[in-house]
Amino acid sequence: MWEYTDDVMEQFHHPRNVGKLDDPDGVGEVGSLACGDALTLMFKLDESGRIKDVKFQTFGCASAIASSSVLTEMIKGMTLEEAARVTNKDIVAKLGGLPDQKMHCSVMGQEALEAAIQDYYKRKGGTAPGVKKGNIVCTCFGVTDEEIKKVVHENDLTTVDEVTNYCKAGGGCGGCKERIAELVEEVQGQKTHVVHKEKPVKPANLTNIQKMQLVQQTINEQIRPALRADGGDIDLIDIEGNKVIVAFRGMCARCKMAEYTMRDVVEARLKEFVSDDLYVEELKD
Fold first, then answer.
1. Using CA atoms, how far apart are residues 217 and 197, in angstroms rounded to an integer?
2. Could you give all domains of the chain from N- to C-terminal order, each with its CATH number?
3. Alpha helix ranges (H) inside the chain
4. How far apart are CA 262 and CA 15, in angstroms?
5. Which among 189, 164, 166 has a CA at the least distance from the CA of 174?
6. Model confidence over 237-256: pLDDT tens digits?
7. How far apart are CA 192 and CA 183, in angstroms?
8. 252 is catalytic
9. I want to staple 39 with a disulfide (CB 3.0 to 4.6 A). Which of 12, 58, 158, 228 is the partner?
């Protein structure tokens, strides 16, 4: 399990400003449920142009919830110009640190805020200062070359894996890793080695025993570590034909987003490593 600070756990267990605003002045949406992380942030301004209220909704891990929560607290009372200068490093510092593999959660918060500010100016018929530009590099997660260069520069990143940790680029099919390496070299002036991972080969014509063994292996090696990283767990209960019955444990059992975790993490991994015909159902107590 990740080593989370007390501030992270406090913001996770007691998140601030969760929900929606009626008639917000700006709304920013980043990520997607299919990719495993999604965040919507919205704000309202007072008469003097300062952020009077801000709300967020997120589908993600403890780090995503904590990062979003603390960000909303940080920007209350700021002008949009002041809020636009908040970086992911500011969010991480306020939380007392995040694991390297969870840094993308802080970047997601920063990007949602930027998108909300841009939305405000668009509604007013103008253009927000520092509007993102660039070409999509990572099609899996919709990350542009300018976003990658920005996160490399601001966080002094030197490897493709670090870039993936901070903005998820390269964390899907991996087809963009060579381009990410070029962008790191462009910013840092040093070559970056890319490690290519072979795609899993799914066996054909599995017997029932082989299917159960491979499902259990996939849960143990591909699914359980990710859930345990955020205080959750999963048990294989039974397999009936192509139906895999599981039970969530720990934080996953109490999470309102368990349905999405089951479909977009558990079922997706089983389809990837075992069989496209598998589907997952959760055993409810």
1. 19
2. 6-123 (3.90.1010.10), 136-188 (1.10.10.1100), 208-282 (3.30.300.130)
3. 6-13, 62-75, 80-84, 88-95, 103-123, 145-155, 160-167, 177-188, 208-218, 224-228, 251-254, 258-261, 268-273
4. 23
5. 164
6. 999 999 999 998 887 776 65
7. 9
8. no
9. 58
CA dihedral 211, 215, 216, 220 (to 10 degrees): 150
Which residues, 6 or more positions from 42, have their beta carbon under 8 angstroms from its beta carbon? Answer: 20, 21, 24, 26, 27, 28, 54, 55, 56, 116
Give burial (CB, 10 Å; 0-12/13-18/19+) of 264.
Answer: middle
Return d(Cα 119, Cα 66) in angstroms, integer.
24
Residue 70 corresponds to which tokens in the numbers above?
């603390």
Question: Where does residue 28 fall: left (phi above 0), alpha (psi -120 to 50 degrees), or beta otherwise?
Answer: beta
35 is catalytic: yes
Q: For residue 214, what pLDDT is reported?
A: 93
Catalytic residue among 105, 176, 252, 255: 105
85's tokens? 């200068």
Cβ atoms within 10 Å of 276's Cβ, excluding its own: 10
Contact 136, 144 (CB under 8 A): yes
CB-based contact 76:51 (threshold 8 Å): yes
Backbone angles phi, psi at 179, to 5 degrees: -65, -40
